[in-house]
Amino acid sequence: xxxxxxxxxxxxxxxxxxxxxxxxxxxxxxxxxxxxxxxxxxxxxxxxxxxxxxxxxxxxxxxxxxxxxxxxxxxxxxxxxxxxxxxxxxxxxxxxxxxxxxxxxxxxxxxxxxxxxxxxxxxxxxxxxxxxxxxxxxxxxxxxxxxxxxxxxxxxxxxxxxxxxxxxxxxxxxxxxxxxxxxxxxxxxxxxxxxxxxxxxxxxxxxxxxxxxxxxxxxxxxxxxxxxxxxxxxxxxxxxxxxxxxxxxxxxxxxxxxxxxxx
Length: 263
Fold this sequence. Notes:
The chain is built from twelve helices and eight strands. By secondary structure, it is of the alpha/beta class. Strands 1-2-3-4-5-6-7-8 form an eight-stranded parallel barrel, surrounded by six helices.
């Protein structure tokens, strides 16, 4: 029995656009609700959300039970941390702040078993192997791991060709951090930033890798798809909830104040 099939990796390799949502509420119940929405993938964020390995795992479990595929963003690309996430059964990873080909190559090695990589061999006690219920896990796991790296600085953009020359599955552009590093903090819509993103997406696609981006701007979403992006985040659960609850409170306040005026 081989390692579980990774449908996201297969879809991205086939060039099929996959749209998803960022999960930052750090709550399994909220993740389970998101998993009923119909996204292709849901990303549990451990970089900017208050998550640790245990809370990530709780959310990954409930997403796994749905048609959506779970992805996890690590807080940093350390080999020991990658090992823990993989052993916990997370097959698709997004690693932030990648700025060189060497760094990308080190990450590729971190998600693979020896002799081609450096992932520690502890599958007998790992959830990833269903606790030794998957006898061929060690020899098949590498092929089902999807490694996406995040380029979000001028240094990373300068090294993009070197990063693309490695065996990463895809490169994700981070507009917010890139804009800040380019001197446009809080303004990812600046023409210079948009042009840099468009250029990067085109180069990623031309290199045969999955190109990814998170943007709430519908025009940018459409442009990204037209440029060949296949890993597209269109929503963030925190913002969806914040907008909805504030709108509900505003409606409730207007109702109460309207009744008060009538009296």
